[in-house]
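Q: Two folds, back to back.
A: First:
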Amino acid sequence: MAIYVPMELGILMRKILDFLGSPFVYKSPKPNDGFKRFLHYWSSKKLRALAGTRTHYSKKKLIQIYLEKNEKENSCRSNF
């Protein structure tokens, strides 16, 4: 014997179950996410050299500058 469930209730139940289960689902990291975490353990002095600046910035900003610089260099290389 089958139980009839209205479609709206089924959709609502699915949303609730998806919400409850979402914290237990593995989500892959974004590109460069692990590399950013790795660079965070370097000294600010090394990061300044990588970023090509002598100005004092936070580590987060130095990593951002380095990744932007690196991305521009890679995009220039791919144009050839």
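A: Second:
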Amino acid sequence: MIYKAITDLEKEILDSELDTELKKFLLDRLEEMRKAIIGYRLHGTEPLTRATVITAIEIGMKQELINKYKKNGIMKKFFGIAVAISKVIQFADKYKKYLPAFNQLLLGTGSDLPE
């Protein structure tokens, strides 16, 4: 689900006409999010939290560039993924006992994640 959305968005970014610096930023952040999702299976929400915090800091540092493209559909999808990960963190911290079912529902069944 989120993992597949990241993969799909990466392809869209690569094929886009976005500024090269913005492309690099988005692809780097998405790769960090992908690693965090894989790390979540082993370490809980800590990798997701780290990826989200780093993304927020870097967004602040690149605010001028991001504002230039903020109405772009790619940017909306990027922020949607970041918000979805934040919601995963909130839910996982609150409802730890439901995590196995939740992992399958939001993060995928496992078939879309690398082995």
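Q: And?
A: The helical segments are 2-14, 20-43, 46-61, 63-69, 73-94, 99-107.
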